[in-house]
Design brief:
heterodimer; A: mainly alpha; MetI-like fold; 11 helices; B: mainly alpha; 75% helix; 1% strand; globular
C-alpha cells in the first residue's frame, strides 16, 4: 500500500518534471491560436488570424526563406564532411582518432557566444562580415559536432566484414560504398541531417552576432524585434509552426530511423 | 592492442582532413585570436582596432562594479540553475531508462535543445507574463488577486535557464545510468536497502561521471547564456554574457568584448578543474 503510494508520487513528480520541460513549447503552440493582440489566459477567443498574418508578412517570409537556405546548405556541407571524417576515423583507426573526435565535438562544450565574438572581429578584418559564405561557414561549424557524433556511432555499428565480403566477391570500392556502406548508414545519415538542419535553422546565439543586415534569419529578426517592441503575435504563430515541424521531425525520425539512439 | 585499419593511412588522412581543417581554422583559431584581441584596444568612437599590448580592458572589468556585479550574479545564478537541473534530471533520467519507449522520451527531452534558445523562450513569456498561463490560471481559480512577478527578475530567468538546459543534464545522466545493470538495484533491495539507500549507495556513486559531465555542461551553458536572460529578464537582470553581447553587437568594442569572453573562459576552466577534482576525489573514496 505505502509502496504503491510512493510509486504513484514518484510517477506524478516525474510527469510534472516532463511537463515543466515541455511547457514552454506547449504554451507557444496554444497561444498561437489566441485571438487577442496580447496573449492572456484564459483566452478571450480562438482564431487563426495570426497564422494568416504570418503567411502575409513579407519580412518574416523572406527571413524564413533565408533560414531555410542557410540551414540546407550548411547541413549538406556539415553532414558531408562529418561523414567522410567519421568513416576515416572508424575504418582507418588512426592514432589521432581521439584528438580528432575532441576537435570535431568541441563546439558542444566550448561557449559559442565567446567564439562568435572572436569570429565577428576576424570576419570584419577579412571583409566577409555579414556575407552568406561567412554565415554558412559558421553554421557548418556549429552543426558539425552533432553530425560527427551521429556518423561516428553509425559507422561504428556497421560490420566491416560486410564491406570486406563485397570486395572479395569482386565489387569495386565505389560499388562497396554505394551498395553496402551507404544503405547501412542511411538511418544515421538521415538522423544527422535532421538534427543538423534543426540546429542551424533555430540558432540565434551565433547568428545574431555575425549576421549582417542582408541575411537576417527568422530567429535573429524575432530576437531583435522582441528586445525593441515586445512580443508580436505573428512571431508566436510562426514559432508555433516551427516547433510543430520540429516535433514532427523528431517523432517521425524516431519511428523511422531511431533518431535519438546515436545522439 | 594494435587495431588493424580497414583502409590505408593516406586515405584516412584525406577523409579526415577537410573536416579537421575547417574545425581548426573556423573554430580553434578564433579562440586563439580572442586571447590576442583582448589585449588590443579600440579607437574611441570607431570600430578601428589598435594592435598592441594593454591591460586596460581587464582593468576596466576589475575596476567597474557594474561588470563585477554582473559576474557575481551570473556565477551564483549558474550554480543555482545547475543544482536545480540536477535535482530535476535525476528522477527523470532514472524513470526514462527503465521505460520501453525510451527512444521517443529521449527525443522529447532533446526538443528544447533543437528548438534553439529563442522559441521556447517565446513560449515562456506567455507562460510567465502577468496575463499569462500561470497567473491567469491562478487568478481564475481565485488563489491570487494580483499577478505574481515572474518576468523581469531572477525567478523568471532561472526558470527559463533550467528549462532550456535540463536536456544537457538528462542526456549524460541517461548514458551513464544505462551502463548500470538492472540487477544491481534488485540486489540491493533484496538485501533490505530502501529506495533512498539504493539511490545514495548504488545509483549516485555509479552515475557520478554523468553527474559531473552534466553539471559542467549546464554550468557552462548558463554562464554564457544571453538570449534567455535578456528576454525573460527584460533588461532588469544583467548577466555577464549579455554584457559581452552588448559590447560585441551594439557598442562594437571587440577588444573589450574579447576580454569579457576571456573572463568567462577562465571561470569555465575553473569549473572544469573543480569537476575533475570532484570526480577523482570521490572516485578514490568509493
Amino acid at each position: 500500500m505505502t509502496s504503491r503510494f510512493s510509486k504513484a508520487m514518484l510517477l506524478a513528480a516525474v510527469l510534472a518534471i516532463l511537463l515543466f520541460l515541455l511547457a514552454p513549447i506547449l504554451v507557444l503552440i496554444l497561444s498561437a491560436f489566441d485571438s487577442g493582440n496580447v496573449f492572456r489566459f484564459p483566452p478571450r477567443g480562438l482564431s487563426l488570424r495570426w497564422f494568416e498574418a504570418a503567411f502575409n508578412h513579407s519580412e518574416y517570409r523572406s527571413s524564413l526563406w533565408i533560414s531555410t537556405v542557410l540551414g540546407l546548405l550548411s547541413t549538406a556541407i556539415a553532414v558531408g564532411l562529418a561523414s567522410l571524417a567519421a568513416f576515416g576515423l572508424v575504418r582507418g583507426k588512426p592514432s589521432y582518432r581521439l584528438a580528432m573526435e575532441v576537435l570535431l565535438l568541441a563546439p558542444l562544450t566550448l561557449p559559442l557566444v565567446v567564439w562568435a565574438i572572436a569570429l565577428l572581429s576576424i570576419y570584419a578584418q577579412l571583409g566577409i562580415n555579414g556575407t552568406l559564405p561567412g554565415l554558412i561557414l559558421a553554421h557548418v561549424t556549429i552543426t558539425m559536432p552533432f553530425a560527427a557524433r551521429i556518423m561516428i556511432a553509425t559507422f561504428g555499428e556497421i560490420d566491416p566484414n560486410l564491406e570486406a565480403a563485397a570486395k572479395s566477391l569482386g565489387a569495386s570500392p565505389w560499388q562497396v560504398v554505394r551498395r553496402i556502406t551507404l544503405p547501412l548508414a542511411l538511418p544515421g545519415l538521415l538522423s544527422s541531417t535532421a538534427i543538423a538542419f534543426l540546429v542551424s535553422f533555430n540558432d540565434v546565439v551565433v547568428t545574431t552576432l555575425i549576421a549582417g543586415a542582408g541575411w537576417i534569419t527568422f530567429p535573429v529578426r524575432t530576437f531583435s524585434r522582441l528586445r525593441t517592441e515586445g512580443i508580436d503575435p505573428t512571431t508566436i504563430a510562426i514559432g508555433a509552426m516551427i516547433v510543430a515541424f520540429t516535433i514532427l521531425v523528431i517523432v517521425f525520425g524516431q519511428r523511422l530511423f531511431q533518431l535519438s539512439r546515436r545522439l | 592492442m594494435k587495431q588493424t585499419p580497414d583502409i590505408k593511412p593516406t586515405a584516412t588522412a584525406l577523409l579526415v582532413a577537410p573536416a579537421a581543417i575547417l574545425m581548426f581554422g573556423v573554430f580553434v583559431l578564433p579562440f586563439l585570436f580572442l586571447v590576442v584581441l583582448s589585449f588590443w584596444s579600440q579607437v574611441p568612437g570607431s570600430v578601428g582596432i589598435v594592435p598592441g599590448f594593454t591591460l586596460a580592458n581587464y582593468a576596466r572589468i576589475i575596476g567597474d562594479g557594474y561588470y563585477l556585479g554582473g559576474l557575481w550574479t551570473t556565477l551564483w545564478l549558474s550554480g543555482l540553475v545547475t543544482l536545480l537541473c540536477l535535482v530535476l534530471a535525476l528522477p527523470l533520467a532514472r524513470w526514462i531508462y527503465a521505460k520501453r519507449s525510451k527512444g521517443l522520451l529521449i527525443g522529447l527531452c532533446i526538443l528544447p535543445l533543437v528548438c534553439g534558445a529563442l522559441l521556447p523562450t517565446l513560449g515562456l513569456v506567455n507562460l510567465l507574463s502577468p496575463l499569462g498561463f500561470i497567473n491567469g490560471a491562478l487568478k481564475s481559480m481565485g488563489l491570487i488577486k494580483t499577478s505574481l512577478p515572474l518576468l523581469g527578475n531572477i525567478a523568471g530567468v532561472s526558470i527559463g535557464l533550467v528549462q532550456a538546459f535540463l536536456p544537457l543534464m538528462i542526456l549524460p545522466l541517461i548514458s551513464t545510468i544505462e551502463r548500470i545493470p538492472h540487477d544491481y538495484e534488485k540486489a540491493a533491495m533484496s538485501l533490505g536497502a530502501t529506495r533512498l539507500v539504493v539511490w545514495r549507495r548504488v545509483l549516485l556513486p555509479l552515475m557520478l561521471p554523468g553527474i559531473v559531465a552534466g553539471s559542467l555542461l549546464v554550468f557552462c551553458a548558463s554562464l554564457t547564456a544571453f538570449v534567455t536572460p535578456q528576454i525573460l529578464g527584460q533588461g532588469k537582470v544583467v548577466t555577464f554574457a549579455s554584457l559581452a553581447y552588448q559590447q560585441a553587437a551594439m557598442v562594437l568594442d571587440w577588444p573589450f568584448a574579447s576580454a569579457l569572453g576571456m573572463v568567462m573562459l577562465l571561470f569555465l576552466a575553473l569549473a572544469g578543474l573543480l569537476g575533475a577534482l570532484v570526480s577523482r576525489g570521490l572516485g578514490r573514496r568509493t
